[in-house]
């Protein structure tokens, strides 16, 4: 091949690449007009690597950094209280949520399912002691002890466990204490 034919081949390759890029962009724009993909917004809820994914103000998934293992940390994707996916980077976790949602395989987050999972976990928690309005509980899964303060004004301080502190939700330890109180203090008969 001569030098002129090499230049022509390069020029054709560049034109083809530009044309292909323009075609891909056009096809993407048309597909968005026909069936737009919902935008998933990820929000850092507390500044401690706890994210929530929303579509149109509906919570669809949680992504959080699990640091409870002494060996290593990993990212967790949780939907309906179930850990669906583990990975080593937030972008990988975010991509999993986006792809699963767009494919229809990511189930919509439901708070009642999460509560029932915590209620199941509460069945194993032992309430050991009461000191004033504080209760000492033991989690038999990891043998950790926590202090539960049901009447604390700060929701994140009602239990010493990471689930309560970082997520600000009612943990299985609080549920166990409430069930214990109901057993010890029966309701009056009317």
What can you see in these coordinates?
This protein is of the alpha+beta class and 190 residues long. It folds into two domains: 41-109, no CATH class; 115-184, no CATH class. 41% of the residues lie in helices and 25% in strands. The protein contains five helices and eight strands, in the order H-E-E-E-E-E-H-H-E-E-E-H-H. It has a five-stranded antiparallel sheet, covered by helices on one side. Strands 6-7-8 form a three-stranded antiparallel sheet, covered by helices on one side. Helix 3 (111-122) packs across helix 5. The chain is elongated. 17% of the residues are buried. The model has no long low-confidence stretch (mean pLDDT 81).
Query: Helices and strands, in N-to-C order?
Result: HEEEEEHHEEEHH
Spatial order of strands in the largest sheet: 1-2-3-4-5
Count up the helices: 5
Q: How far apart are the termini?
A: 102 Å
Which radius of gyration do the C-alpha atoms yield?
26 Å
Q: What is the number of strand segments?
A: 8
Low-confidence residue ranges: none
Proportion of β residues? 25-35%
Short description:
It is built from five helices and eight strands.
List the helices and strands and how they pair.
Elements: H1 3-34, E1 41-44, E2 50-55, E3 58-66, E4 74-79, E5 82-87, H2 90-103, H3 111-122, E6 126-131, E7 134-139, E8 144-148, H4 162-167, H5 172-184
Antiparallel strand pairs: 1-2, 2-3, 3-4, 4-5, 6-7, 7-8
Helix pairs in contact: 3-5
């Amino acid at each position: 091949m001569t030098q002129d034919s090499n230049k022509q081949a390069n020029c054709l390759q560049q034109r083809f690449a530009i044309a292909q890029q323009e075609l891909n962009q056009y096809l993407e724009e048309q597909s968005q007009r026909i069936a737009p993909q919902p935008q998933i917004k990820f929000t850092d809820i507390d500044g401690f690597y706890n994210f929530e994914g929303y579509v149109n103000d509906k919570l669809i998934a949680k992504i959080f950094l699990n640091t409870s293992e002494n060996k290593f940390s990993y990212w967790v994707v949780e939907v309906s209280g179930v850990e669906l996916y583990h990975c080593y980077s937030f972008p990988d976790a975010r991509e999993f949520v986006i792809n699963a949602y767009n494919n229809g395989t990511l189930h919509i987050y439901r708070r009642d399912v999460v509560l029932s999972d915590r209620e199941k976990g509460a069945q194993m928690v032992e309430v050991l002691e009461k000191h004033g309005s504080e209760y000492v509980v033991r989690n038999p899964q990891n043998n950790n002890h926590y202090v539960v303060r049901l009447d604390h004004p700060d929701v994140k301080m009602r239990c010493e466990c990471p689930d309560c502190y970082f997520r600000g939700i009612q943990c299985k330890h609080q549920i166990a204490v409430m069930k214990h109180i109901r057993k010890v203090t029966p309701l009056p008969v009317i």
